[in-house]
């Protein structure tokens, strides 16, 4: 045997374990920094998600809080009862109505505001940006106070303006016909700023040379918008549309603080019904089933949007 061959083989044999040990030591700081996040994720996300899924197959209620394992397994009974529950079907219809009207209005208004601001309003551009975005970061309680003042049929802003011209203001929040449209307008106003900021970012990413070339070719404002702005903004439109739809399918705050689902369930949404079932009536198993039905609807709608809108972005 060649002299030193055994030693060389031994050194090669120990190099792997030593390197693995060194890499393990190097990973320690990363794991230390990640541990708080992992603990929070498991505690407040993963465990509740799994627990809710399990509860949706039981009759879990207030009596089971002290001893969760005393809840009886009911199979898919909660899910079956949902689609025979008139209250839930009303909430599902109202949520769909809210999304079908609210999402296009929010996306359209956000795009319009972004285009106008991008074309220039001089030194007031920052002021307008702040004005449009302020409702996004404003407390829902403060927003509710403002909109109650605007919509109040006796002393509200609209009733005052109507009285000036000899008209009578309707009871917006007390009418089964007008209550939901009123909440949609409020939601559009609250979410307009987010859509505007995202569209502004997309508009500022469009090369100026492309616009200049279009103008040299004789394109007007509308032609430039239709042929350049919209096609190049389609990825942004996809993101804004999907995120707005997800948010509106989860709508809770507006009906909760403004109408509590009334009048006569005219503004009851799935999220609000889920809250009522879980924390008012303490039918937590039933509310858990409702949560997973809503999750399935959101997932299906999101995948459909991605499929339809992605085809247009290609």
Automatic annotation (TrEMBL):
The chain crosses the membrane at residues 28-55, 97-118, 130-150, 178-201, 232-252, 281-304. InterPro entries: ABC_transporter_permease, MetI-like, MetI-like_sf. Residues 1-13 have a biased composition (Gly residues). It comes from the Bacteria. PROSITE patterns: ABC_TM1. GO terms for biological process: transmembrane transport. Residues 92-305 form the ABC transmembrane type-1 domain. It is found in: Cell membrane. Keywords: Cell membrane, Membrane, Transmembrane, Transmembrane helix, Transport. This is Sugar ABC transporter permease. It comes from Streptomyces nanshensis.
């Amino acid at each position: 045997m060649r002299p030193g061959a055994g030693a060389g083989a031994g050194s090669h044999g120990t190099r792997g374990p030593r390197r693995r040990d060194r890499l393990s030591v190097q990973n320690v700081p990363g794991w230390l920094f990640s541990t708080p996040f992992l603990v929070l994720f498991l505690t407040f996300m993963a465990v509740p998600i799994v627990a809710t899924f399990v509860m949706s197959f039981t009759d879990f209620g207030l009596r089971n809080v002290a001893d969760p394992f005393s809840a009886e397994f009911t199979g898919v009974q909660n899910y079956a009862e949902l689609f025979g529950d008139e209250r839930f079907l009303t909430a599902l219809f109202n949520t769909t109505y809210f999304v079908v009207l609210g999402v296009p209005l929010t996306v359209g208004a956000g795009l319009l505001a972004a285009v106008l601001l991008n074309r220039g309003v001089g030194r007031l551009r920052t002021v307008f940006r702040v004005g449009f975005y302020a409702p996004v970061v404003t407390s829902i309680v403060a927003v509710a106070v403002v909109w109650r003042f605007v919509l109040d049929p006796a002393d509200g802003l609209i009733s005052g303006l109507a009285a000036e011209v000899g008209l009578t203001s309707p009871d917006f929040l007390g009418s089964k016909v007008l209550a939901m449209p009123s909440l949609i307008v409020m939601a559009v106003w609250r979410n307009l700023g987010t859509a505007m900021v995202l569209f502004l970012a997309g508009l500022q990413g469009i090369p100026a040379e492309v616009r200049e070339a279009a103008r040299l070719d004789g394109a007007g404002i509308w032609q430039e918008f239709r042929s350049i702005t919209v096609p190049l903004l389609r990825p942004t439109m996809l993101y804004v549309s999907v995120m707005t739809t997800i948010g509106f399918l989860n709508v809770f705050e507006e009906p909760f603080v403004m109408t509590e689902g009334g009048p006569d369930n005219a503004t009851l949404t799935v999220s609000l019904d889920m809250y009522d079932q879980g924390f008012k009536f303490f039918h937590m198993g039933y509310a858990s089933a409702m949560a997973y039905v809503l999750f399935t609807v959101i997932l299906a709608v999101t995948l459909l949007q991605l499929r339809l809108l992605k085809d247009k972005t290609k």
